[in-house]
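Obj: model holo form, ligand = coenzyme A.
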Amino acid sequence: MSRNDPVGPSRPAYSGCCARPAPRHPADRPAVEAICIATGDDGRDARGLQAHPELLAHLWASPHLIADPALATIVEDPHGPAGYLVATADTLDFERWCEQHWWPAVRRQYPLDEAWGDRDRALVELVHAPEVSPASLAAAYPAHLHINLLPRAQGAGLGRVLIERLLTQLRLRGVAGVHLGVSRTNARAIGFYEHLGFERHSVEADGGLIMTRRV
Ligand SMILES: CC(C)(COP(=O)(O)OP(=O)(O)OC[C@H]1O[C@@H](n2cnc3c(N)ncnc32)[C@H](O)[C@@H]1OP(=O)(O)O)[C@@H](O)C(=O)NCCC(=O)NCCS
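Output (holo structure tokens):
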């Protein structure tokens, strides 16, 4: 266990696998982005659905890994990185950080006035006008998370390990609650979150479901 990581790495019951802290960004970034894309369509591979699936990672994985790597956990098995959890403890602070340090470069890379396909355009528009968390949600549930495991790592207890590790970290930081957004068509993930104590909180303008849990 590292002195900087009071929670320490976890070894779930999955052959040859470990869930380790991710202080190695930017080395971890390509693997996190690849896993985000490979599971980006409600757990299925998002490659082939759009020309720029990397936008999924620009929106929902990479900035979290960079802004607070201590809250990220990488799952590794003998074949390499197989999953991750990324999170922020303070969503409003994270949104400010993104405006200053993340979105400017991504916006230059994906200008609004290019001829994007429909799926890409929807994400490029989010890059230029990111979702802003309602103040009441961020006050009661300041943290938020994203978790994605490749199919070979699913169903073996790793999701629970990653969520419980994050909850311990948030408790140590004195954070009261955590929220997440999930597509309403991702029934498997919704069932998983509910099983781990998350509740349905509200539906976003784009139809996404917000779920919350006290820490
Ligand atoms: C959703 C996901 C994170 C779940 O992780 P997982 O490792 O497959 O889940 P686990 O094996 O850790 O399951 C933990 C517990 O939840 C239960 N569970 C899992 N899915 C469930 C479901 N759909 N309904 C009810 N319970 C469920 C398990 O039975 C297990 O119960 P137990 O610990 O009490 O025995 C993972 O499957 C995944 O990454 N999917 C693809 C990407 C994705 O959809 N991410 C979410 C985007 S919002």
